[in-house]
Protein 1
Amino acid sequence: MSSADYAIETRNLTKTFKGFTAVDDVSLKVERGTIHALIGPNGAGKSTMFNLITKFLEPTTGTILLNGKDITSQKPAQIARKGAVRSFQISSVFPHLTLLENIRVALQRRMHNSYHFWKPESRLDVLNDDARTILTQVGLEDSESVLATELPYGRKRLLELATTLALEPKVMLLDEPMAGMGTGDVQRVADIIRRVAKGRTVLMVEHNLSVVADLSDTITVLQLGAVLAEGSYDEVSQNREVRSAYMGE
Ligand code: ADP
Ligand code: MG
C-alpha cells in the first residue's frame, strides 16, 4: 500500500512538553475507509495525537500526511477544509440555539469559504432540509425545536456529532465519543458511528473495549506515548505485552 491509501499517516511523530515526551516516535497508518481505534491507559498520548493530527499542537519532530500529502506545516482551519474534522472534547454547540439552528450554523460555516453564498443551497428552506437530514442521521429528528442547553448529556454529545457531520468530514476524529454515557446511549452511539463511518475514515479514541472490538477494523495500542501493539482486536488482545500493560494481566 502506498501513502496515498492512508487517510492519515504519521511518520516518527514526537511531541515533548518541557522535556516530557507525551508522543514518542509514533508512525501510524490509518487506511482510508476504515474505523481505526487508538487505545491505551490514561496519559498514553491519545489526545495529544489528535491535537497533533489536527494541528491544534505543533509536533516537536515528525511528519503528518493526509491522503498522502504532507500537512505538517498547515493550520487547523486548512486541515478542516481538507476534510479532517475532530469531534468531541471541543464544544461546537451553541446552547441557546435550537438543534435545527445549531446544524444550520454548522452548514453555513462549511459554505463560508466558498461562493456557496450565492447558490441555492444557502436558501433557508434548503438549509433546513439538509439540517433535518443530519439530525435524522443521529436520531435527533424529534427534537429540532429544542434548545441545545435543554438536552440531556447523551443527546448533547449526539448533537456535537451532528454538527461535525454538517462539515462533511471525510476523516472524522472522535475522542471518547461514549465518555460518560449509560449503556443504552453507548449502543446507540456505536450504531450511529458505524452508519456515518460508511464512505469515511474514522479515527477513534475509546475506552469501552467491547465497543472498540465491535466497531474497529484496526487498533493501535499506545503506552507512555509509544506504539505498544497494532492489529485487529483479536491480534492486539492476544498480545502478551498488551494484556499485561493494558488489561492488567
Ligand atoms: P491520553 O489522551 O492518552 O489520556 P494525553 O495525550 O492527554 O493522554 O496526555 C499524554 C501525556 O502528556 C500526559 O502525561 C499529559 O499529562 C501530558 N500532557 C498533555 N498535554 C500537555 C500539555 N499541554 N502540557 C504538558 N503536558 C501535557
Ligand atoms: Mg485523552
Protein 2
Amino acid sequence: MHIRIGFAYTSNCLKKPAFFIELAHTSPLLEPGRFTFSGIDGIIYENPQKEVNEVRKKALKITYFLAALALCVTGLCACAPKSETASFFAMNTLMDITVYGADIQAAYDAQSIVNSLDRELSATSESSAVYAANTGEAARFTENGAELLSRAFDLCKETGGALDITVRPVMEAWGFTTDEYRVPGESELAELVKKVDFSAAAESFDGALLTLPEGMKIDLGAVAKGYAADRAVESLRAAGVEHAVLNLGGNVALVGANTKGEPWKVGVKDPFGKSSYVAVLSVADCNVVTSGGYERYFEENGMTYWHIIDPETGMPARTGLAAVTIVGESGVECDAFSTALFVMGEEKGLEFWRQIGGFEALFIRDDGTIVITEGLQGSFESSSDWEVAHREG
Ligand code: AMP
Ligand code: MG
C-alpha cells in the first residue's frame, strides 16, 4: 500500500499542498473524480466549495490517523489505494489521469505516452515533427504520430472539410497561435484560405514523411488530445486497469464504469459561464469531448471572435451554437467531430450523425437550449430546455 505523505497535487479543485492531497488518493472518503467535467480543465465536484471544505476536514483527521498507522503497523496495512492521480501539463493544458484500485505507475506510463505525443505534435516546439513540417522540411513522424496524421486526413475528408488540419495559417493571422489577437482583412483571409487544403497536404504524406506544399501548415489542435486519450487508455487497459478517468484538458476518457459498477458522471460545462455545468451525462467506457467558442476567444469592437474556424471562409464558425459535445468510443473521432460539428452547425451536424453514426452528440444553441441525439436519452440530465433528435426524421 502507498501511504505517501509528501508534496504533490492532484485535481484542480483541491488546490491544496501535498500531504493532504496525496492522502486523497489513498482514502475512500476522498475519492476524486466523482464528477468530471467535459469542456474545462480539471475535475470538479457537485458543490465544489462545500466539497472542498468537507474534504479538508476529513483529510486532516485521516492524516493523523494514517500517519500513526504508517508508523506503527506499516506491514499490516493491507487496504489497496482507492485511487491515484497523475496530474501534469501537456498539449497546453492541465491533464489528470486517475486510476482506481491500480498502481499509480499505470497512470505515469499513460502520462508519458501523452508527453511524447505532445513533443512530436506541438506546432510551437522547434524540435517537433509538426514544427519541422510547417517550416517546409520533410518531417518524419513516429508510428503513433503517423497514425494520427492519416486518421486526421481521413476525418477531414469524412467531415467534408469542416475539419481541416491545414487551417494553421488562418489561425496565425487571427493571432490565436501567439495570443496577439487581431481581425484580419477580407482579402488577407481570402488569400490565406487558398492555403487551407487538407487533400493537398494528404497527398504530400507517404505514411511516415510529410513534406507540405509551400506555404501550407498543419495544426493538430482539434484532434491531438483525442488521439492521446486513445493511446493512454490503451496503455491503461494493457496494464490491467479496469477503472480510470482521464481528463485531458476537458477531453474526458473513461475506462470501465466506476468501482461500484455505476456509470461515471460527466458534467458538460456551461458555455455561457452562468453556472458550472448545464448537463450531466452518466456514461462508461467512452470519451466525452466538447468544443465551444467560449474556450478561446477575444473581443473587438463589440464582436467576439473564437478559435474554431470555418475553413471555407477563414472566419470563426458562427452557426448558432455555443458548444458541441460528442460521446463515443474513439477519442480521436470524438475530438474531430466536436470541432467539425461546431463548424457544421446543428442541421448539418445532425445530418452527419444520421449518415455516419457511431457516436452521439449534444448541441448547446446560442439561446441556451439543448439538442441531444437519441442515443443519449436515459444518460442525460439537465435543467435547461432540451429536445431529442431522432435518427429517422
Ligand atoms: P477543439 O478544441 O478540439 O475544437 O480544437 C480547436 C483547435 O483546432 C483550434 O485551437 C485550432 O488549433 C484548430 N482548429 C480550429 N478550427 C479548425 C478546423 N475547422 N479544423 C481543424 N482544426 C481547427
Ligand atoms: Mg476537437
